[in-house]
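=== RUN LOG ===
request id: a7f3
mode: sequence -> structure
chains: 1
length: 203
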Amino acid sequence: MKKFTMCALLLGLVIALASPVFAWDESKTKDLGRDGNNMQWWLLEYGKNAEGKNYAITRKYYTNAKIKNETIELLMSKFGTSPEVANSLYFTEYGYEYTDDGKQFAMTYLTHYDRLGNEIHGTVYDDSSEATKKNFLGITGIPAKAASYVFGRKISSAPSTKSTSSNSSSSTVSKKSTSSSSSTSTVKKSTIPSKRIVRAKKK
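=== RESULT ===
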C-alpha cells in the first residue's frame, strides 16, 4: 500500500509538470506570510504591465477552515456553484493595480481554483459595468506587502479603512462574475507540484 501511494504521488507530480502550463518567474515568487485570518499568501508576479500600470498578482491558500467554509457557502448561494465543485476550493488568485504614488490599489480580478488548478469561479474588474468597477482604496495588509516589491521600497499600510479585496472571505465572491456563473470549471488550469507555484492556463 505504501509503495502504491508513493507511485501515485510521483505519477501525479509527473503529470502536473508535463501539463501545458506556464511557470511563474521564480525570482518574483515571494512568501507573503499569513494574514490576520491565518491564511497563507504568495506573491506570484509584479512590476509594470504592457500599459505601464503597476501591478501584482497574489495567491491565497485556504489554511483557515472557517474562512474556507464561508467562501464555499458564498460560492453556492451567490453563484449557484454545485456543492461538489464549491467544496473543491483550494486557493484564490488576485490581481492588483496600484497608483503611481503607491498609496492606493484596486483589484483587477479574482479567481477561485480547486487543488488541480481548475477554475471554480472568477470575476474580472474592468470597469465594464457597475458590478465590475475598479475601486481604488488605501493600501493595507497583503496588498501593501505586495506593493513593497512593486515599488522596491517599503509601503506602509493606510490608516484603518478595511480593504474589501484581500482579507475577508466574503470579499472573494461578493460581485457578479464576468467569466463564469455556472458550477462547471473548465476554462483555466493551474497545477501545484509540491514546491513551486505555476501559472493558470490562459484562455
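=== NOTES ===
The CA atoms of residues 109 and 124 lie 4 Å apart.
The helical segments are 2-18, 65-79, 83-86, 141-151.
=== END ===
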